[in-house]
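Box 3.1 A note on notation
Throughout this textbook, protein chains are presented in two layers. The first layer is the amino acid sequence; the second is a token string describing backbone geometry. Keep the layers aligned when reading.
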Amino acid sequence: MAQQTAKRKKMGIVKTLGRAFLGDVRYGEISLPFFSYVMILIVVGLVMMASASYAWAYANEGDGLYYAKNQAISAVIGFIVMIFLAGMDYHNFKKIKIPGLRNLNIAGLLYLFGLIMLVLVLLMGKDEGGSMGAKRWLVIGPINFQPSEVAKLTLIVYFAYSMEKKFKKMNKFVPGILYYALFLAPYAVCIGLEPHLSGLVLICAIAAALIICGGANKWWLIIFLVVGILGIVIIIKWQGGIDGSYVATRLKSWRDPFADILNETWQTGHSLIAIGSGGLFGLGFGNSREKYLYLPETKNDFVFPIVCEELGFIGALAVIFVFILLIIEGYSIAARCRDRFGMLLAVGFTTHIGIQTVFNLAVVSNLIPNTGISLPFFSYGGTALIMQMAEMGIVLNISRERYFPEKDDTDDDDENNDDGEDEYDPPKEA
């Protein structure tokens, strides 16, 4: 009898912890269209990356499927993470406090973690090769990862939490613009020092989207953005004038991709050749010519030109169309969300995928200078794939439409909390 009582108590604890983790989830209510788009992109991306990387994998590793196997492992890990986060109540990011640090929750801890990783990569990061001295990778034991990919997620989570908490003040310059610029600055400086220009622009664009949706005064934001753009232009002009610098080399390749195709403009030139060679229907899956050691980085930043070459304009357009559907559904989930925190999370993650996709397509087609930015779900890289799938898992969790709030969670923030902390009180289920 005593044994049964102890067993019941143990099960009660498990149920309590489970409810705290899951929140008031009603299973089966995730956005199936969004899930379908994610899975299509992952599967197609894995298959096309396997084809695009085959020759380089065989030449470098002695196994044509070397990169594909590693990516498949990352995809499995990412899928597990995605399903885990799809089931976890996203409010835990702000509800769960760190023991011993009363005012620090998971969102705040994630921000600090992302910043520490970005600092460490500058101090002890390694050059992955082919990036002109850039330090973007951190090796800790058997783990090799890119902190800038982690930083995107951590910044979005913290900004969403903070903007929900302070939304009544977001229309003022100091709390709505300057405050977040100061929190963005350490991330931006670290990424800029790697150097990772595309990553810098991407994380700033994500932050700007969140600030807009968070309720900032648009005129203050416009002024701030103009100043920021002028600063970037000045840096590019300065660096572009230094012969042989990272920026100068990229600008040279952009202006005339065939000017020095046997040397500095080789990659950009052959990317355009691959895109043009596909025609309307492509050369057929696996029949790319440029992947046979002509076009570098076919496994990573330049996987899409191989998609164009093998699947043609029609196939490439189909891939782009799925990305568009994913982005539309992501913003729809944000629009339908019943609390500000979830809305901002969905906006941030969807914007990340959308802008990064546009940047990659612009780079490989030479619409903007080659800055080394990957295509979500397609490009080789375990860190990026796992982080992207983690973000999609959170968006799926947001799509569950679990709550029907009677009032906004943050209406009484300033009156009820001396420190401005927003304590989330789950509303009643409908």
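Confidence is low (pLDDT under 50) at residues 402-430. DSSP finds 15 helices and four strands in the chain.
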